[in-house]
Amino acid sequence: MGDVAKDLTAGTVGGAAQLICGHPFDTIKVKLQSQPMPLPGQLPKYAGAFDAVKQTIAAEGPGGLYKGMGAPLATVAAFNALLFTVRGQLEGLLRSESGAPLTVSQQVVCGAGAGVAVSFLACPTELIKCRLQAQSALATSGPAAVAVVKSVLQVDDYKNPKFSGSVDAFRKILKSEGVKGLYKGFGPAMARSVPANAACFLAYEVTRSSLG
């Protein structure tokens, strides 16, 4: 197996593991962010994170903590493939000669370029995403397509669900709002992804070089 294939395989497995472990926490975060402001004299739906966990499990079972995970889990491989492919291509274009080390500015450009590409799949700033989603009747205004579907499933009413799953959510969003409905808030997605990936790869390269 080549180095690229190893990177993609390891990155995909690692990304899937991260998603499986972290998704329940993300679900609770989305529920807390998207709950409406209580009227004067009323208590909020969730008193806090632990209360949100308790209510979710009581109402929906443990599976309720994993609502909406299908779409991002299905794109883990594509995310890593796009990230490393774009970064690798940019490295090849910017190197003065084969095997030559990249300058700091070139490393930043490579990471930022990869960030632009993965913005089409990456989850954006969650608070902005949830606020955009909450203002729509279908809760379909999120910064990136996968993030939209994931979060509308997370905050969907378990008693009267609008969506039966990820595929159904994609279908209904496309039908009601078109392709543009999947990319509302794309600006915040890119605003986070570009500097985040630039910093990530820069730190990675600098640390690796320092360690010899």
From TrEMBL:
Domain of life: Eukaryota
Alphabetized UniProt keyword annotations: Membrane, Mitochondrion, Repeat, Transmembrane, Transmembrane helix, Transport
Gene Ontology CC terms, in alphabetical order: mitochondrial membrane
UniProt-listed Pfam families: Mito_carr
GO molecular function term, any single one: L-ornithine transmembrane transporter activity
InterPro entries documented for this protein: MCP_dom_sf, MCP_transmembrane, Mitochondrial_Carrier
Family listed: Belongs to the mitochondrial carrier (TC 2.A.29) family.
Protein name: Mitochondrial carnitine/acylcarnitine carrier-like protein
Membrane topology, from the record: Multi-pass membrane protein
Provenance organism: Phtheirospermum japonicum
BP-aspect Gene Ontology terms: mitochondrial L-ornithine transmembrane transport
Residue windows of the Solcar repeats: 2-93, 102-210
Taxonomic lineage from the root: Eukaryota, Viridiplantae, Streptophyta, Embryophyta, Tracheophyta
